[in-house]
Amino acid sequence: MGRSTISNAVREVRPLLAARGFAVRDRPGIRLRTLESLFAYADAQGVELRIDGTEV
Length: 56
Fold this sequence. Notes:
Layout: H1 3-20, E1 22-24, E2 27-32, H2 35-45
């Protein structure tokens, strides 16, 4: 499988994941649909976020 094939698959899947939102483990009713909602949830729960800036 080539790099362009994987890139194409990621391009197709990413919008589907974003539209559905990201589930929070052990909290089935919570979906984080935006970066702002992620930060708000983390702040409310006392969660420290770390961002990995490694280029893939």
